Amino acid sequence: MIQMTPTAQSQPEVAYQWMKSYIAALPREEETFLNEGVLAKTTGTSRTPVREALLRLEAEGFVKRVPHKGAYVPPISDPDVRAILQARAVVEKWAVSAVETMLDAQIDAFQRIIDQQQQAREDPARFIELDTEFHTLMVRAGGNPVLADFYASLRQKQLRIGVKAVSQGTDRAGDVLREHQLIVDALRTRSLEAAHQAIDAHLDSTRLAVIGY
Fold first, then answer.
1. pLDDT at position 116
2. For residue 186, which of 58, 116, 192, 195 is within the disulfide window of CB 3.0 to 4.6 Å?
3. Rounded distance, CA 104 to CA 10, Å?
4. Cβ 211 vs Cβ 82: under 8 Å
5. Which residues of 21-44 are buried (b: 16+ CB within 10 A; e: fewer)?
6. How far apart are CA 212 and CA 207, in angstroms?
7. pLDDT confidence bin for 53, thresholds 50/70/90
8. Which residue has the higher pLDDT, 97 or 167?
9. How far apart are CA 60 and CA 93, in angstroms?
C-alpha cells in the first residue's frame, strides 16, 4: 500500500507512485481519463505536483494528455497483447545472444530478482515490477541502447498485462518463477538454444494466461 505522506516523499513523487500503481491495476480492457482535481484530492497533494507527475507518466508512456479532457489511459486489446509479446520475443532472444560473454555477476543479478519475486508473490503490483526489472536487465545485457529504449517504451503495457495475469486466482506467479528460473539456468550453462526455448515458452505461457489463446 502506498504511503501518502509528503514528508516521506516529495509531493510529485507521491502523486506519481499512486497513479502508476492505479494504472497498473486497471483491467487492460478498460480505458479511463484521469482528472487533475480528483487526483490531487485522492493523493493528498495539489494540482501542481499532480501535473508534474502526469508529465512524467506521459513521458514513460503510461498516459496521453488530451486537452480539456485530462490524461487518457487507453485499453490494451488482445491483438495489442500478441503484438507486444511478439516484439518482446524478438528483442529478448536477440539480447541473450551475448550469453557466451555474459558475466557471472550479470546472471547472479537475474537470480536475485527471482528471489525477490518469490518474496513478493502476494503483491501482484510489486511482483510484476520485479518481472519487468528481470526482463529489462536481460535486454540491457545485450548492449544495444536503442533496443533497450524501445523495450522500455512497452513498460506500462507490460505492467497492466502482467498484474492482471497474476491476480486471476491461478498460480501464474508460480509459473512465472519457474519460467524465469529456466531462463537463468540456460544462461548459466551458456546454452543459447536453451535460453531461446525458455524465453519462447515463457512468453507463450504469458499469452495464454492473459488472452487464453
1. 97
2. 195
3. 37
4. yes
5. bbbbebebeeebebebeebbebbe
6. 7
7. very high
8. 97
9. 24
Looking at this protein, which amino acid is placed at residue 203?
Answer: L
Residue type, 121: R
Alpha carbon distance, N-terminus to C-terminus of the chain: 33
Q: Which residue has the cell 533496443?
A: 147
Instruction: Kindly report the number of other CB atoms within 10 A of residue 84's CB atom.
Output: 19
Q: Residue 165 in contact with residue 209, Cβ under 8 Å?
A: yes
**Rg (the chain; Cα; Å):** 18
Sheet holding 64-66, edge to edge: 32-34, 70-73, 64-66
Q: Write down the mean pLDDT value for the chain.
A: 89
Report CA-CA distances (Å) from 117 to 8, 124, 135, 176, 186: 25, 10, 13, 9, 19
* Residues 45-54, mean pLDDT to the nearest whole number: 92
The continuous run of DSSP H or E covering 134 comes out as helix 124-140
Q: Output the pLDDT for position 169.
A: 63
Name the pLDDT band for 83 (thresholds 50, 70, 90). very high
- State how far the Cα of 147 lies from the Cα of 149, in Å rounded to an integer: 5
User: Strand 32-34 vs strand 64-66: parallel, antiparallel, or unpaired?
Assistant: unpaired
CA–chain centroid gap for 183, Å, is 18
